[in-house]
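Workshop exercise sheet. Pairs work together: one partner reads the sequence aloud, the other fills in the structure field after running the prediction. Swap roles for the next sheet.
Pair: D.N. / O.F.
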Amino acid sequence: MKVAVMGAGAVGCYYGAMLARAGHEVVLIGRPSHVEAVRANGLRLETKTFDDYVRLDASTEASAVQGAGLVLFCVKSTDSESAAAQIKPHLAPDALVLTLQNGVDNDERVRSVLSNEVAAAVVYVATEMAGPGHVKHHGRGELVIAPSRASDEVAQHLVAAGVPTQISDNVRGALWAKLVLNCAYNALSAVSQLPYGELVKGVGVADVIRDVVAECLAVAKAEGVVVPGDTDAALRGIAQSMPSQYSSTAQDLARGKLSEIDHLNGLVVRRGEALGVPVPANRVLFVMVKLLEGKQRPH
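Structure field:
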């Protein structure tokens, strides 16, 4: 299978490297410094069980999606429409575009730009870029993907490549379940610049998380979304299974980059207001992250 990774950050590099290790032809599309490092040495994939240099192709051009049967769409939620427009002229007509992003509406937004089949995926992985051409895996790695014409085949390839993958009819609910976790942890980790294990020890943090989660679930219910699983157990599991992990929002702020907060707590605020559901805790976290973003950037 030829695979293109559009937006080769930590998530895209991890899954792209796992597929490349299994023998698939993979091209990463990303920033120049990252692309140069991968072209020179391969992609360094550092996990708890192995530390390998994986040979794969890399490009800075969206046209590199040409000929790919599968596109792992991993750009920031803020860039969904613009990145979809960039790859549109170069996509094979039968390519499946799999959105591996934070937030709950990226597949809809990408579908509004592309005529290709688009399927949402829920990503459960802790990864970070440890430098150009170097991705570090901290834990987990499973995917839940929506049904599509090619989902069965893609899931088989992913499982064979060491990526636990299941197909679910309720990916929307699973995306909301992940959004709830992101809303609970991402902004707090960003504002405090603490990893999850330290964060949960903070005074009053458990109460804030409880309030944020209750608001998210109320908004989901008002939207008619069924959120699967045991939310409380999942919340505890994050801090226990990834104690050293900083949220992606924390990593963005630490690097002076814009975060995806508009598509996390910000989305809950917008949907809550539209549906008449009070969301004060989410609003406070959203505003605090926006203030920190503004502080870092020239006016």
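Discussion prompt: The chain has twelve helices and ten strands. What would you look at next?
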